[in-house]
Amino acid sequence: QGWWPTENEITGSARIRWDTDRKCAMETVLQYCKVKNPKKPPKSYLIHAGFEPLTFTNMFPSWEHREDVAEITEKEADAWNKIILVEDVLHKLCQTQYPLEELQARPLPEGVDPLKLEIYLTDDDFQIALEMTREEFSDLPSWKQVKLKKAKGLF
Q: How far apart are alpha carbons 66 and 148 in whole angstroms?
């Protein structure tokens, strides 16, 4: 689990790229585990930057522990000292539907593209929130879509 210096708040497209990179890395880890032992893949755990265990760092002869990274992680990560399975985090990042209230609240759930909040709604919530079907919405010009999403708190 990487880290960002605290002075660089990540939002917008940088957040989308960050979440996409994390998803790809976690999918790669899980696929590697399946190839390693197809019958019983080993569990993979999330390791936060600055808190790498010796079993991990000993694989890299020139590993340097950075206390500044550990301090950032400790402040920023809510679960830096817990055992977390990669598959659980990946499941959260790959969630495809959220209740309308969660998409109108800030901060948004991890992995959600803030420019396309409407795609995470169920068909019923979409109809309620935007007062039209997905097909009717997609037929609108993009400027009208943006205007409607702003008016409904989905932008």
A: 47
Query: Global pTM?
Result: 0.69
Length of the chain: 155
Tens digit of pLDDT for each residue in 69-108?
Answer: 888 888 776 666 788 899 999 998 889 999 999 999 988 8
Q: List pLDDT tens digits, range 121-130.
A: 999 999 999 9
- Which residue's entry shows tokens 């659980």? 88
DSSP for the chain?
-----TTS---HHHHHHHHHHHHHHHHHHHHHHHHH-SSSPPP-B---TT---HHHHTTSTT----HHHHHHHHHH-TTTTS--BHHHHHHHHT-----HHHHHSSSPPTT--TT-GGGGS-HHHHHHHHSS-HHHHHHS-HHHHHHHHHHTT--
Whether 71 contacts 50, CB under 8 Å? yes
Q: Could you tell me if 110 and 46 are in contact, meaning their C-beta atoms sit under 8 angstroms apart?
A: no
